Amino acid sequence: MTASEPQHSIAWINGTWGQPAELALPLSDRGLQLADGLFETVLLHHNRPCLLDAHLRRWEQGCELLGMAAPPKRPWLDPLIQEAIERLGLAQRYGAMRLNWSRGDGSKRGIGLDQHSANPSRHRFWLTLQTHTPTFESVRTWISCHEYRHASSLMSRCKTFSYGQAIQVRREAQQKGADDGLMLSTNGTLCCGSSANLVVQRHGQWLTPPLSDGCLPGVMRGQALKQGLMQEQSLSAEPQPGDQWLLINSLGCRTISQVNGEPLTNRGNGETLWRSLLPSHSEISLPP
Known about the structure:
By secondary structure, the chain is α+β, with helices and mostly antiparallel strands. The chain has helices at about 30-35, 50-65, 75-90, 165-175, 220-225, 270-275; strands at about 10-15, 15-20, 35-45, 50, 95-100, 125-130, 140-150, 180-185, 190-195, 195-200, 205-210, 230, 245-250, 250-260, 260-265. Strands 7, 8, 9, 10, 11, 12, 13, 14 and 15 form a 9-stranded mixed β-sheet that branches. It has a 6-stranded antiparallel β-sheet with strand order 2-1-6-5-3-4.
């Protein structure tokens, strides 16, 4: 890349900045070997991380659930985020930032945890930031016949490194001629997409599955519930007449045009809903 070409991504680990493809983790890291870690994907806009406090709360709660040390706090993260924005030259573009926290190096082979497994000095943090364009295009979906979201699993409540199931859900959908996959809960109700929460507009009301059905506590989902724009309700896999289905996460909102080949209503208001959940003020800003 020449000096005149803009960067599209940057990463930081252990005090070193570089390209994500150039920096490295130790091969002994449990996040690399066992997917033993948690992450947050945060939207950046106008040089500001959107809903960062909500992301950090979920990150910390996930660590507590899984017996990990608490992740880095905001006072430590803010200067690092600002430097990443400056180095990338994000300006007015959107960005997608990923905050990663692994349990670090294990003291022995295998999955076992020792008495120091929750020691923060053994954990490992790294950050990546890349330019991003929010996604709002419609998608055709297929409900997976093989993969289910476990309603009572702690893992269903945490944003872990382990995305093997989501990859297979999307792969199955694409083999069926769809774009993305949906998952049922182990209790038989509709749960979520491969990498987004499910939202259904029915009779003028926005609905989303409850956490007890196994869905991830998504940040945008949480904002909609907090603002009173949405209600929790268990949903069957069969669309009702006039339903509009959406897949929403921090990086965009896509209208579902088909589920298992059956066309669904598209009212064209997914982007409006998504943008209404973003903060209208700065969470952090670069110094003048």
